[in-house]
Design a protein that fits this description.
This protein is α/β, with parallel strands linked by helices. It contains 13 helices and 17 strands. Helix 2 packs across helix 13.
Amino acid sequence: MGHVLIQGAELIVTMDDERRELAGADLRLRDGCVAEIGTGLAPEGAEIVRADGCLVTPGLVNTHHHLSQCLTRAVPGAQDALLFGWLKTLYPIWSRFGPEEFRVSALVGLSELALSGCTMSSDHQYLYPNGARLDDTIAAAREVGIRFHATRGAMSIGESKGGLPPDGLVEAEPAILEDCIRVIDAFHDPDPGAMIRVGVAPCSPFTVSPELMRDAALLARDKGVRLHTHLAENDEDIAYSLDRFGCRPGQYAEDLGWTGDDVWHAHCVKLDGREISLFAQSRTGVAHCPCSNCRLGSGIAPVRAMRDAGVRVGLGVDGSASNDGGNLIGEARQAMLLQRVALGADAMSAREALEIATRGGADVLGRPDCGRLAPGMRADLAIWDMSGIEAAGLWDRAAILLAGPNRVRDLFVEGRQVVRDGRIVTHDLGRAVAAQTRIARRLAGL
């Protein structure tokens, strides 16, 4: 593989251990890694990418998504519903999906993320109707070319057993565990620099049994993969846990083996002080999804308290049926603004929110090789053109979350270019969007 030299960046925000910010610097990418950072680096036969007037950051990391939901943005019956009503509206639509719906929606959703600066994303796929498999989404991720942490989700408790989803969307628990083993064996890469990893991710405490939660944790640890689920998303979630399990969600998670440095939970809007301490002590991670939490009226997650206690926090765009978009740089801005709304203008700086979006997310996903720019780290980075109207008059280039573009000029993953001059170059995005539009119209009966 040849190598790339990014020359003359106005500023490189490294997010390295010293949080260095380097003006007028160059950055060499070789063999999938950052090889050098400095000024006046020799070309050495590299492909040259000029970054005059640009900010360079580590690639952003998305720690929670439901990519298939890109097909159900702004569904009328779900636009103004709380979480449980929202789900009941959408379950019947999702039950009509199949392999092509999952693949095309993932192509569009991952491309949308890439254009917003994302180089690594997880996905929580917990529906498998009409022959769909996790393989469909993984194939799309490989086509787009961003680093991907697929999680094999599941639902096993349908309406007839007191659960939320219709019976036709749930699976038998032995079959769920068997397929977890299959996809881990087929796709999970534990090595540094891995492009594909797989996790185990029962959907939520109100869609699977305690036995499946416990068995899933045992299986994941036997296989050496990570664990993920939804937790403490809103008041309904807390009430359900107290009623069905006699405890709060954090205690329920701990009792079933769902805390530890190999676990991350989505949302955690309603964690109390004891649960925050538990997560900090156990090194349990959190995927904070501010736009979705606003959209569904779930509340403001206590991110400031989590961070101060030492909880690892990353960002997630969540599904595009509860966010209606997948702009990760916008998600970082929203995270910053919500903490300020709750606690004051000094509650979270633009730099701290950017750190959560980069190395914070990488650490939540167990990827200390990503999310920062330093020699030996993976060559995942975003180049932001600061010469446009969004950044006009901006004094502090690193404060891109206060004023700056929300779409990258260039994006590199493992040293390979995924976005060039604001366009996806790895696949035909126009064709994917057209297919997505046709499918969505069919599902809507148009």
